[in-house]
């Protein structure tokens, strides 16, 4: 067998495999504990669009100044955000605190 022909066929197989693979991005959306209802729904709509495209979404809640003392308010906002998306998304990473940020990662539900 010709080695050059073999290498050519291998490269063609690799190119085909690259065409078929799915590239998933992690899109980020930022919130604050004082984000109003309408603004929250607007952000939910954006995350829905990200999930429908097949991407994951990272929801970050940023605490500024003395807001860090009211973690319960932030947790309620992020839980409400998750509840709005429960029909289309699954929570991949539960809400965690990292410094002054609380974040969770949501992924699209697997279609049957």
Commentary on this structure:
The protein contains three helices and four strands; from the N terminus they run H-E-H-E-H-E-E. The protein has one domain: 2-Layer Sandwich (Translation Initiation Factor IF3). It has a four-stranded mixed beta sheet, with helices on one face. The radius of gyration is 20 Å and the shape is elongated. 43% of the residues lie in helices and 28% in strands. The model has no long low-confidence stretch (mean pLDDT 91). It has 112 residues and is α+β, with helices and mostly antiparallel strands. It has helices spanning 3-20, 37-52, 71-84; strands at residues 26-31, 56-62, 89-98, 101-108.
Key words describing this protein structure:
Translation Initiation Factor IF3, 4-stranded mixed beta sheet, 112 residues, elongated, alpha+beta
Give the strand content.
25-35%
Helix content: 40-55%
Shape: elongated
* CATH fold-level topology: Translation Initiation Factor IF3
Q: Give the number of DSSP strands.
A: 4
Poorly predicted tracts of residues: none
* Secondary-structure element string: HEHEHEE
Q: Can you identify the CATH class?
A: Alpha Beta
CATH homologous group name: Translation initiation factor 3 (IF-3), C-terminal domain
SS field, number of helical segments: 3
Largest sheet data: 4 strands, mixed
- Average pLDDT works out at 91
Helix and strand content put the structural class at alpha+beta
CATH architecture designation = 2-Layer Sandwich
Number of domains: 1
Spatial strand sequence of the major β-sheet: 1-2-4-3
């Amino acid at each position: 067998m010709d080695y050059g022909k073999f290498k050519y066929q291998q490269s063609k197989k690799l190119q085909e495999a690259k065409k078929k693979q799915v590239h998933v991005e992690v899109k980020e959306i930022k919130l604050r504990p004082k984000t109003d209802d309408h603004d929250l729904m607007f952000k939910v709509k954006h995350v829905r669009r990200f999930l429908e495209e097949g991407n994951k979404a990272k929801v970050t809640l940023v605490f500024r100044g003395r807001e860090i003392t009211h973690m319960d308010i932030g947790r309620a906002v992020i839980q409400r955000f998750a509840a709005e998306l429960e029909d289309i998304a699954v929570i991949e990473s539960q809400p965690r605190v990292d410094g002054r940020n609380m974040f969770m990662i949501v992924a699209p539900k697997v279609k049957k």
